Every structure is written in C-alpha cells, then in structure tokens.
C-alpha cells in the first residue's frame, strides 16, 4: 500500500512539471536566503568576539574606585542616625591607579597567577595630533610595549615599522591606520602631540598598525613614560591595567575577585561591549522571525500546488475512494507530496546557500561591519544552521499539505462522478 501511495504522489507532482518546478524554486530560494542570512549575522558576531578576545583586554582594572556601601537611613532612623550634606562641591578626580607595581605583583601571585596570563599598565589621554596642516583629536595610550604585545599581539598587527624601532626612537608613536589615513601619516614622519594641558610634544612615527577594531585603529600608542608625562602622572600612577586571562568566556568570577581585593572596578570585555552584544542578540531574533515568516510563505506555495492538484484530480480521487482507498490513505498521498516538495526544495536551497556563502566570503571588498573593519564578509559555517532551516522548511511544507489533503479525503465519490463529464 505504501508503494502505491508513493507512486500516486510522484505521478501527481510529475504530471504538472512547470508548477512543481516553480514551487520547488520558491522553496529553494527562500531556504538559500535564510541560511545565508543566518550565516552572515552569526559570522559577524563570531568575528567580533574572536577579534575582541584576540586584540583587546579580557578584563580591565580601571582607576575608578568602587562606590562605598550605601547607608540605610530608613531602618536606622529609630537609632537617631541622620545624614546631611556639607559643601558638596568637589573637583572631579581623574581615574588613576596608585602604586600599580604592587598590583602587578598581586596579579603574579599564587592567588591570581593561574588565571591571569598577562597584565599591561597603561595611561590614556585625549590629545590633538598635528601633522603638516592637518590635525585630529585622538586617544593616546601610553603602554609598556612588551606587556601590551602579550595582551593585544600588537607586533603581529603592524603594517609598517617594528617594535625594535619603537623602542629605539625617542618620543616614538605607533599610529592606528585610521589616524594615519586621516592625517596622511607615513613611517618616519614627525608629528606634534598637543595635550589638554602642558606644552606640545614632538614625536616620530615608528610604525602603523591595523587591528580591525575601529576604536583601537583610531588611536595612537606611545611608551608608558611618555603617556605619564602627557597626563602629568607620577611614575607610580597609571590610568588602568589591561588583563589577559586564561578563560576569556568565563571571567566574571575572576573580575569580581579582583574588585574585592583591589578596590578598583574591573569590567570584563563582555560588559564593555554589552550594547554591541545586545544588538547582535536582537538581530538574531529578527533573523529567526524572518525564518518563520519566509517559511510560512513557502508553505503557502506548497499548499497552493496541492489545492490545484486536488481540484484537477477530484475525479481520480473519487474513483480511488470507490475502489477502496480510505480517507487516511488519501491524506497520506497529499501530505507525502508536500513533504517531497519541501524536502527537495530545502535540499536544493542548502546546496545553493553553500555557493552564496562562499561567494560573499570571497569578496575582496573591505567593509566596516559595525565596530569592526574586515576584508570580505564574515560568514559562519555551522551545519546546525543548515539543519535548522531545512528542517523548518520541511515541517512547514508538510503541515501546509495537511489542510488540502483533508479536503480531498472529504470528497464524496457519488457527487463528484455525477457532476463530472465522463
């Protein structure tokens, strides 16, 4: 009986090749678009996380002391406690970490040494960089270049110059590619760094770098001592300490421990980029909604071809019921047709999506994808996306076939044969 049902379903589909191929093409194209879209959005997120984990601190000890615990004035009112403000006008203090070498020793201790892979103190300052007749406000970051290389791998991201040249050149700068482009800077050029307060400083470009993170590529690096001079810090103070940890995806507990021990805020890279990660999450929800809507449209296409088939084959259906075909058997015929159309179209769409993903990934065009700059589109290869979309398409097509199949099962043979012209 099953073989007979399969033969009938195939004859129905092959009997109208143009309509069947049109429906298959619609299902295939929708499947291809959905898989490609998911691959693109997920690839962007994976690329962002990979780039941040590779080229940015996993945890940052900032020179911002933790807020003191608030006093509960309501419950303590019965004890006669009061609160009042006296001359609450204070100068805003700069973010700074005092005696940072003591914290570096702490990070190398047995308590944290197993989890903290590298630590790099830094000093940040907003400055104006002047070259020729151009000027640009940028973030200057003074670093210990050897320690910074352990955090960000800056040596491998240099597009010109070397670390040795940076160490040997007085007043040397490593310039991000965006800054170099905007100011027309090349290796060996002399620039003027104008701080917010204090005299201008003459510097020489010892290298240019490109990390792919737009915020980083729009900054310049100097020696830690030069950064302290620009920011007017003494030798024992820095703006913060960047950390690279052993497990960057599970670092919340370590950050909390560091806050408790040091008294300074220690945000993780996830907290620093929470808005971007939340945006990717919302995009993911939108894409999944798109999967559902387009799948429903594909289901309507499958239902349309089956309704037309039932209308044209109503006399054949009546004859089959007269010969003993049960209503359940007829339902199985048309549900099987919907399943075959959905499966064939989804598999074809999966094959097409392989080509579309490869095509987008091979584009040599540099694109600025949100906070990142990449050459070509960041595409994600994951068999789960293929299985998800193909499975959803097949299920929707099969469910869409159920309604017209019940209509076929309810046909009365006597009425159909009486009204038909034999």
From TrEMBL:
InterPro entries: ABC3_permease_C, Lipoprotein-release_system, MacB_PCD. The keyword Transcription does not apply. It holds the Pfam family MacB_PCD. Keywords: Cell membrane, Membrane, Transmembrane, Transmembrane helix. The keyword Transmembrane applies. The chain crosses the membrane at residues 21-40, 283-309, 330-363, 383-403. Residues 289-413 form the ABC3 transporter permease C-terminal domain. Residues 20-258 form the MacB-like periplasmic core domain. It is a multi-pass membrane protein. One of its GO terms (biological process) is lipoprotein localization to outer membrane. GO terms for cellular component: plasma membrane protein complex. Its main location: membrane. It is found in: Cell membrane. Belongs to the ABC-4 integral membrane protein family. LolC/E subfamily. This is ABC transporter permease. It comes from Prosthecochloris vibrioformis.
